[in-house]
Amino acid sequence: MFIPKSGPVRSVLLVATNVVPQNDQHMIMPTQLDYLAAQLRGRGIHVECLDLSLIGTPFPLPRQEQAQDTFQHLFAQRAMVLSRTVAEGEFDLVGLSFRNLDPSLIQEPCAEQPIREYYLSDLLELSAAVRQANEDVFLVLGGPAYSLFPETLLRRARADYGIVGAGEAALAGLVESINQDRPPLDRIISRSFDFSSAVFSRGNIDLPAYHKLGVTASLQTKRGCAHQCNYCNYPALEGRHYQLRPATVVVDEMEALMRTGFEDFYFLDAVFNSPLEQAKSILREIIRRQLDVRLEGMLSPHQLDEEFLDLAEGAGFFKPLTSLGRRRLADAPPEPSLWRTLGYRPFSDGSAFVGNKYYSAQTMKDFSVRKKSKRNLILGIDAGDDQMLQGLGKSFDQAAISRAAQLIRARGIPLTFDLLLGGPGTTLEGVKNTLNLALEAGADTVNVALGIRVYPRTGLAAMTQGSLWHMEQDLLPVTAFQSPVPFWEIVELLEDFEDLVTLDYNFR
Ligand code: SF4
């Protein structure tokens, strides 16, 4: 039986445990932790943040043979910093936010299976570090990856409580209950939070450090996703109904971030242009205030129309990011005219050696983006064949993709398609149709992720229960949907389109 500890909780340490390669475009700031800290502080709770993402993550990522040592060293270093912070501070509650289950960013040449399971061992090491530093502190887990396996991770990390879903109201409620001498008997807590009316005072994490690293600032205009793509856990985590924030509030937040020096912004929404009217209202507000910003966000062909593209272009989508320029100063490949002389060895994921220096796929892509006057519009279409789109549960069809591509290309905006192959409904014919559609649509690049991970509480999980897994915890180690077409056959077909396609193996 669970016997709750008693309080009080006067001081809280929130820890971002994200592992991201620094100085890479994929590096993201822990915005949700910033939001959470803002809400707790607003309720009079003393909060400090420790951002482990900023501690020495290697970039570029090491090659396979060195990866194990590098990650073990990194995780030991992170655990030591956390342990010291907890031991030296007078915290009553430590909240560990666990964002990613697997390192999806690790591509060739180090995408082997064991490395993909490192994040879990990191979480357990961090939890043990908290316990060692202070056995009495309340240890609370949260974040998207935690929310997928709450019971298992709570038990394995020996945590006191776990928060599933949005943390703002749940963590504040937990602290208040403990302080009123009524600690909850249920160790897994879920409490809805009204995101639509929330105003966040940003800067609880080290924003200047992110700005210096050239990281794009991120913010969220809504939570939730009403679509039903069957591999995706987003609706289970954020809800199937939208919580929309008013445009004035979102753009106020953007202006506050601009005062820290940011000019590039990434919208963290599941899909920025859905619902379409919300996206348009945000863009109109940015235009009305005449902000000189560059914008990024996940875009879908679903309902993408002429007016949206007008507004998006006017507000700052498609302009090259200034942060890319900052990163370029630190780490740019030499001019292409020199590559042949220096020696150029490309990998299938888009990364390359130029001379004896390795450049990640993202760096190579950024480099080509800088040379264009407009940044690519990336459409996450997953597939371009009706049977495959239906198999994935997408809410648009092949015709919608062609229509959207036509509107985009008519403006001279370079176009990238993101594909996800190997899900239900995948056929060789469908892959061929998809690539032909990309050619007909005039796509400049096609990013292909091969293989789909099965997450709990998704359509794919329901489809594979009994065959691939029995208990939810079976899905904790990386578990791939069995592609109807062997990967090697898909790869052979992709090779015919090698000038167009960048391939990333999710699974082998
Ligand atoms: S993949 Fe589909 S369900 Fe998931 S966030 Fe995107 S649109 Fe929503």
UniProtKB/TrEMBL annotation:
SMART domains in the cross-refs: Elp3
Keywords: Iron, Iron-sulfur, Metal-binding, S-adenosyl-L-methionine
SUPFAM superfamilies, per database record: Radical SAM enzymes
InterPro entries: BchE-like, Elp3/MiaA/NifB-like_rSAM, Methyltransferase_Class_B, rSAM, rSAM_horseshoe, rSAM_sf
Residue ranges occupied by any Radical SAM core domain in the UniProt entry: 211-500
Gene3D superfamilies (alphabetical): 3.30.750.200, Cobalamin-binding domain, tm_1862 like domain
Molecular function GO terms recorded: 4 iron, 4 sulfur cluster binding; catalytic activity; metal ion binding
Cofactor: [4Fe-4S] cluster
Protein name as catalogued: Radical SAM core domain-containing protein
Organism: candidate division WOR-1 bacterium RIFOXYB2_FULL_48_7
Lineage: Bacteria, Bacillati, Saganbacteria
